[in-house]
Amino acid sequence: MMFSCRATLGRYKIKINLKHNNLLLLRSPSYFIISNELFWRASFHNTSRQNKQLKKVSPPYRILFFGSDYFSLESLIALVDQQKSEGTSSFVKSIEVVVPPDRRTGRGLKTITQSPVKLFAQDNNLIIHEAPPKTLQTWKIPKPRDLEAIHFDIDSFDIGVVVSFGYFLPPVILESFTKGSMNVHPSLLPKYRGAAPIQHAILNGDQETGITIQELHHEIFDAGKILRQISMTIPSESTYQSLESILAAEGAELLIDTLRYLDYFQANAQEQDITKITKAPKISKDMAEIKWNQITADRLDKLYRAISHQYPITTNFIEKRIQLHNISLPSELKQQKIRNKIANIKVNYSPGTIIYDSKSLDSIYVTCNDDKLIECRSVKMERKNEISVKDWINGYGVESGKMKFESL
After folding, report:
1. What residue stretches are annotated with the Formyl transferase N-terminal domain (predicted)?
2. Cα–Cα distance, 209 to 247 (Å, whole number)
3. pLDDT recorded at residue 55
4. Considering only CA atoms, which of 188, 198, 135 is closest in space to residue 165?
């Protein structure tokens, strides 16, 4: 049975023609879902914001996915799962992958390391294209290589999906996608434009973050129109790895839903509010080098949770570099207890001073510039393996309250 209905979705009036009577329409501040069990057509009365440069391309889409790390891997997995689970009814016809060159890592740069996205693509027999080092300015975008594309000499992909890729895509590449391109960004744009939004959210003690699906801008990183956006509370004591994992899963789910109803979201894309732009520049190695007379315990705790996966917290001990691992911010009560336990020792609580309870060598505590203590459970001396603080104290004769870490 065919029937029609009219409804208002926000400030847009829509007309829906149905073949079944099982319409499921859910509306929230960030998205709506229409049951995929019905055949529907929506006519939006407000079309002034539609991108008229895009061709009328219907699913299923040929997707060229640009990615590298574990954050982008979640989105690629979701696309592959969607294609496999829905089969011929999927909005994904084919997926090919673009990855950065393999990296040399380890001591002496002797180990060749492939990205998580490349490893997954190999395991799932996806076609892989390797980007040149540093820039795509002279890179020629490949033609689709699925059997149908080869047979009919189809020379362009429908959609470019870019997730944590690290390259700027020049206009000539963006304009090659017949249905446009999009990016999954782990912040509430325009807040935290840049390479390290997760790290800066932790560093700044934010209580909220989110995911933005944006169109790719022809000239500026992270300045595209917003297709979708959802917010979420940042769990207390989040590390980069734990928050990345949560946001990667949320981003992958939002990407799939955006692609499913792409015409609607492209037609209603929102410009970013340029008055609210903040930056999240790349993390540098020197950020992990501690100056004890300039850092509070709270700041050091945030710094450890935000960047230590990439650059370990580093200081000096008897003129040798030492990394501090398993760092945490003890409660006020715990700090007072440790001070009470060493009350019989004359301690100069100047920044960098190392103290510990001789009856329990599980942790050391270091004084910061606000007279608060930071806790540490393991260390790694330069050119040595990571060891417990108990082994370090015994091996290096560290005296509680009498020895200090030196600022770098």
Report:
1. 62-258
2. 9
3. 57
4. 135
On whether the CB atoms of residues 227 and 179 are closer than 8 A, the answer is: no
User: Cα–Cα distance between 252 and 75 in angstroms, integer?
Assistant: 4
Helix axes 116-123, 70-86, angle to 10 degrees: 20
Cβ distance 224 to 183 under 8 Å?
yes
Contact 250, 231 (CB under 8 A): no
Average pLDDT over residues 286-306: 98
Angle between helices 297-307 and 240-260 (to 10 degrees): 50
Q: Which of 164, 381, 178, 373 is nearest to 364 (CA)?
A: 373
CA distance 357 to 368: 18
- CB of 99 closer than 8 Å to CB of 128: yes
By the 8 A CB rule, do 150 and 237 touch?
Answer: no
Supply φ then ψ for residue 213, to 5 degrees: -100, 115
Strand ranges (E), 242-295: none
Cα of 338 vs its chain's centroid, Å: 38
63 CB contacts (<8 Å, ≥6 apart)?
Answer: 79, 92, 93, 94, 95, 96, 157, 158, 159, 160, 161
Please provide residue 9's backbone torsions phi and psi, each rounded to the nearest 5 degrees: -120, 100
Neighbours of 97 (CB within 10 A): 26
pLDDT tens, position by position, 393-403:
999 999 999 99
Task: Please give the structure tokens belonging to residue 223.
Answer: 């300045």
Let me know: does 345 contact 359? Beta carbons within 8 Å: no
